[in-house]
Amino acid sequence: MALLAVASTFVGVADVSPSALLAQGSDGEAARLLVASRIPRTVSLVLAGASLAIVGLIMQMLVRNRFVEPSTTGTAESAALGLLVVTLLAPGMPLIGKMGVAAVFALAGTGLFLLILRRIPVRQIVLVPLVGIMLGGVIGAVTTFIAYRYDLLQTLGTWMTGDFSGILRGRYELLWIAFVLTVLAWVAADRFTVAGLGRDVATNLGLHHGRVLAGGLAIVAVITATVVVTAGVIPFLGLVVPNVVSMVIGDDVRRGIPWVAVLGAGFVVACDLVGRLIRFPYEIPLGIVVGVVGAALFLWLLLRKGSRAH
Amino acid sequence: MITVASATKRYGRTAVVDDVALELGDVGVTAIIGANGAGKSTLLSLIGRLLPLDSGRIEIDGLDVGATKGDVLARLVAVLRQENHLTARLTVRDLVGFGRFPHGRGRIDAAGRAAIEEAIAYLDLEPLAERFLDELSGGQRQRAFIAMALAQDTRYLLLDEPLNSLDLRHAVEIMRLLRRLAAERGTRVVVVLHDLNFAAAHADRIIAMRDGRVIADGPPASVMRSEVLEAVYDLPIDVREIDGARVGLYFR
Question: Where is the ABC transporter domain (chain B) (predicted)?
């Protein structure tokens, strides 16, 4: 993970190698590039990767389904819709305000998903993410239509495809909010595990299930919104990483969170590196690389677990 | 004491629990019997505040279950439903450890660790302690959940058909364990049972329900009578006395 981060810092079109840094000194071209672009990019990759993976873990505990994460529950699409609405109605709003509106939309979208789930008690475990993906499709279609009418399709594209090439100093700091919430999630880890045991068991253990659900979904919505606002959707990340961790060490959230965070960050940094190197000096957006790798891993998980999931 | 005062729970227009008044927890093991849909499980869920009451009042040691804070009740009463589907991959020891959640909100002290080990030993789960629950059989999983309720270390223990999916040996062992809990720790156990002979053999008091009401209540000798059981189950049941214990014969 540390090695990947270091590598990510030194890969790019311009020469920012340790030797160049040393040769040019602390106010040379290389050092300025390092501080303004490379370090922010790596830090934001780590923050986004870790927090989105943890969001997946929390959602899987709260919904009690292995296959949910922001891009399979309509959460990410709702955040993008919120962002579009605020861009149209209040284009001058500061970024944090836009993020807030996107978070409210994400929360509403996730709430709608849970309501639909409650209405149709699905027995088949794989149906749950299907419902979410359909809901996401509907919300996405509405968003695309609005964007089309107002000639904002290209902007929408940047939100829906995670891309860290535009990250500069001053344009990623919102992600520290995601970091704070991630720490908060770690503190509340046991509550999420207990909630994951089901409403009855949680109530028996003296936990207010509804409150934990609301708090957890708030964390999910805000983190998703921050990542969508700063870099764009990174699909499947929250799904693949927690599942891999679960297979190895189980679902105790307190034990799992550090692993999920490290693996999530590592996965994102690695995919970003691949995207930057594969047709150097051009870039492939991170969202596409993660999407391809993640979809393959998702399929593998489905085929592997679908048969024995109960 | 658990005091149930004119408790009623309706689904639609049918009252599943219909104006029930009871005092529970006077003796070690109380068994609730009755046919399917008699309201046994619903009553247990109402007492364990897993379902809200429609009317009436339930108090546990003077605390109203509808108004008392969740963690206060969780240190007083443990309730286990019969179906415990688990999607989370936890080890047996993890699960039992969560029985200590009401006592430390996740932090487990020395006393808590001792309680966890004791609960695991009580249910014979030592060899399985590090295994994941999804790798166990239904009966083993059932025992792990009972161990969790035990680790909760409450005065009252409510179990809904804990013998489901257990083989005969483990069913007998669970009933013996409940007796031991009552004798050694003074736990007051209320248990919903399908098999009336298990109730007759192990309970101090049997409550028989039908159509949401209590229709018989007393020591096994008073409930284990042909005419009473026939009214409970709508089935002729021949009650014999074998070595001083009453056994209901209903297999043919």
Answer: 2-236
CATH topology of domain A53-305: ABC transporter involved in vitamin B12 uptake, BtuC (1.10.3470)
Whether A125 and A195 have beta carbons less than 8 Å apart is answered as no
User: Domains of chain B by range and CATH?
Assistant: 1-76+154-252 (3.40.50.300), 81-153 (no CATH)
Take residue B189 and report the two structure tokens written for it.
């156990």
Q: Alpha carbon of A72 to those of A109, A141, A280, A301, B118: distances in Å?
A: 11, 15, 32, 15, 42
* pLDDT over 70 at B201, yes or no: yes
Q: Which residues of A touch B (CB under 8 A)?
A: 61, 64-66, 125, 189-191, 193-194, 196-198, 200-201, 203-208, 246-247, 250-252, 254, 308, 310
The one-character DSSP state at A72 is: G
What value does the mean pLDDT take over residues A252-280? 91
pLDDT value of residue A247: 87
Give residue limits of the domains in chain A. 53-305
Percent of chain B at pLDDT > 70 equals 100
